[in-house]
What does this fold into?
Amino acid sequence: MIKRLMHSIREYKKDSLLAPLFVTMEVILEVIIPLLMANLIDFGIDGGNMNYIIKMGVALVISALISLCFGFLSGRSAAIASAGFAKNLRKDMYYNVQNFSFSNIDKFSTASIVTRLTTDVTNVQNAYQMIIRLAVRSPIMMVSALVMSFRVSSELAWIFLVCIPILGLSLYFIMTRTHPIFERVFKTYDKLNGVVQENLHGIRVVKSYVREEHEIKKFTTISESIYQDFSKAEKNLAFNMPIMQLCVYGSMLLISWFGARLIVSSGNNGAIGLSTGELMSLFTYLMQILMSLMMLSMVFVMITLSRASSERIVEILDETSDIPVKDSGVKEVADGSIDFSGVNFSYSKNPDKLCLKNIDLHIASGETIGILGGTGSSKSSLVQLIPRLYDTTSGIVKVGGVDVRDYDLETLRDEVAMVLQKNILFSGTIKDNLRWGNADASDEELIHACVLAQADDFIRTFPDGYDTYIEQGGTNVSGGQKQRLCIARALLKNPKILIMDDSTSAVDTKTDAMIQKAFLEEIPDTTKIIIAQRISSVEHADKIIVMDNGEINGIGTHEELMASNDIYQQVCASQVKGDEDNE
It folds into this structure.
């Protein structure tokens, strides 16, 4: 896990190495300063030597200033390294998500990915900054101060060796109890983000059904769960400070007691005593040792917090697309012909839970194909195999006579335009959204695509026309307008295959008919696959495929299916009756 995370340091390795180097220099000077102070007291103040006092005073000031400079440089380098590390982590995660197949995306919720990109990365960033600075400073400071303490007085330095294991065992106990809690907290964070996103996305439905109180209760319940877990974790972490203070003040008391005895006995009967300056230096080293332990405890707490975050980040980084891409894939799609040969498909890759079964189908280039079927009959699953959004569980799908798995993925998807069931528009102008289909499209090409999609008329009614700003998700246009803009965006790709997955459901029948007519006249060589619920949307297609329970129930023209297919007859009869009732 650590090796995987460290890959994201990259150009910030220099700052990551400079931070501990500067910290080491800072520590060396801080350890020397107590010795200078001891000499200042013992040989300057006690001896009444003003020249020595001035000399030691200048040395102390210079040492303090140099130590301050090293401290500033280490802090600056650590900040740059940690911020850069976090930037690269987010970039690596985001880039990897872009390479996910639909089945990879199905494993992670949107809320979970957002939490990992924000909260989890911030936790790892803070932990990394502490590791390259405090985690380096604390052990070096502790060992150096301990060595100097033994140099000053080996009798009193043993007090420090008693405190260190007590604190170490306490930290280990705290870490083992808090880590599982933090893991649970971050999973709950995913749920919290999911509730907020769902509420904001469906705010109109919430208000129209007067369900505000219900949504508030959902949010409050999850928020309360996070509060309870964090409180429990913080209660465990709270033991850190009392134990630390117990060791600090206990050590100070013992050093004061035994140190005073050594000072009093100094020189009596040849006993090795202790000077006032040395006692003061021991107090300083005591504080340095215990402050180092306190810093280490803070690092361990942060590592405990970030460990769960690190595991969640690595899950995203290590996730590989389950759609393997060949390095030397086919770079050209010959035509818009499509062939399904013995195709079975399962979202879980489980051959016992197939949603498409025994699909054998040939679609000639330039044909218009209608697909009809009840809810859950796997109409969308069938067409998603064509641009290789998913791979088949078994069998072969061919486009232009070539297995889709042999294509360069970008080449294949450039030639297969798909208007999905859920129409998504991005924040930006209408032109910006349309140019997702072709970034280099001219204004004339934009207008022509919109004319075909029957979108030009309503766009021109907007005050800013094609420069009208679209809010995130297209909330400031109607469902039918959104669908027509998405169709125009797909047409700008000039694809060999155009798939419309129930993408005219919010359009009236007259406009739908005009769109079908424009397709027939303007793009006759493009293979058109239209999934629809209305018979009128597909009745003029060259072939109509009737899907039922993941299988092809019938194929034929409108007239042929009316004469031979029960499901098609029932759908047609229900829609005709519905139209008569509406009249």
